[in-house]
Design goal:
The chain is an alpha+beta fold. It has helices at about 1-10, 10-25, 30-40, 50-65, 90-100, 105-110, 125-135, 150-155, 210-215, 240-245, 275-280, 295-310; strands at about 70, 75-80, 140-145, 155-170, 170-180, 185-190, 195-200, 230-235, 255-260, 265-270, 285-290. The strands form 3 sheets. A 5-stranded antiparallel sheet has the order 6-5-4-3-7. A 4-stranded antiparallel sheet has the order 9-10-8-11.
């Protein structure tokens, strides 16, 4: 269980998360008390050297924006000075909630056969280098494997990318950046990267770049600025309506006409992309696309093709 969790993120960031989570959920601790708790951690290979501890404090400040400070007046104890900063950082909260491990790890580990996690996606081994490049605003050289062409030699590419943002979708990591050879922004999957090198050539992140805004009109990672924002209306039947209420398909979701226990209609304003269609198809017979007509026809076309496989 422990190894499954650790493999999801790099060891460096796991240590940051462990230390921050430990201090957030404890009274102020001395370095000796921190090391006593660290002994029960699956990644522990001995006490944390003081120099390493201070490097971790610095890394946590850079990554999360919070400070771990020392209170010398009460016996050199350490605590988180500004935990309220985390409330404003969605990524930081997600990391802490998703990857923090209870302090009583021995008890937690004894439940490993009853606490199950999804399979770990590939590509996480490149996260350290990518985040480093993002922090320093330097380019990456990437050897990349595409799947679009039947001839393997056309699928292998080398390009230089200015890393702008990372995103997780459907258990896969994606990197958004400016690819010099394409002269534009592209999103690439980390699990298709064969090799990656951090370069020394710097770049300037555009002042108006906003990762959340960039992906705001889509479900998933496919963004095409030429696609219009479209009104999409679906009808969800039975329990699927409750699922959509608790986990909206998109942030623009609004509910319209409904009949308790039978159906509910939901409206969205977003771009129609391959990921949106895939998400709708995944709901099977529990949803119906009402509008626009072109999306309804595309769903019909896909469903007919699927049906033909079983004739």
């Amino acid at each position: 269980m422990a190894n499954r969790i650790i493999q999801m993120i790099s060891k460096t960031y796991y240590r940051y998360i462990w230390l921050l989570d430990t201090l957030l959920n404890s009274c102020p601790l001395t370095i000796d008390e921190i090391n006593m708790l660290w002994e029960d951690c699956p990644l522990s290979n001995g006490p944390i050297p003081l120099r390493t501890f201070h490097e971790q404090r610095k890394g946590i400040k850079e990554m999360f924006g919070v400070e771990i400070v020392c209170d010398r007046s009460h016996g050199n104890v350490y605590y988180v000075k500004n935990p309220e900063v985390l409330e404003k950082q969605k990524v930081a909260k997600w990391l802490l909630h998703k990857y923090s491990i209870p302090q009583e790890f021995a008890t937690f580990n004894s439940m490993k056969d009853r606490i199950l996690l999804e399979e770990i996606p590939l590509g996480t081994s490149f996260l350290d280098d990518i985040i480093e490049a993002m922090q320093k605003n330097v380019e990456l050289q990437v050897d990349y494997q595409r799947y679009e062409n039947d001839q393997e030699e056309y699928n292998l590419q080398e390009f230089h990318i200015q890393p702008y943002a990372l995103k997780v979708f459907n258990r896969r990591w994606y990197l958004l950046g400016f690819i010099k050879e394409k002269d534009g922004l592209r999103t690439i999957a980390l699990d298709r990267i064969l090799a990656l090198k951090v370069l020394t050539k710097s770049f300037t992140l555009p002042e108006d770049f906003d990762a959340q805004k960039y992906f705001s009109n889509v479900v998933g990672i496919f963004v095409n600025k030429d696609l219009p924002i479209t009104k999409v209306k679906i009808r969800a039947y039975g329990i699927q309506a409750e699922y959509l209420r608790s986990t909206p398909l998109h942030k623009s979701q609004s509910e319209g006409k409904s009949k308790y226990g039978e159906f509910a209609e939901f409206t969205y304003r977003l771009c129609i992309t391959p990921e949106l269609i895939s998400q709708l198809l995944s709901m099977g017979s529990q949803i119906e696309v009402l509008e626009p007509e072109e999306l309804r026809e595309e769903m019909k076309k896909r469903i007919t093709a699927m049906f033909n496989f079983y004739e």
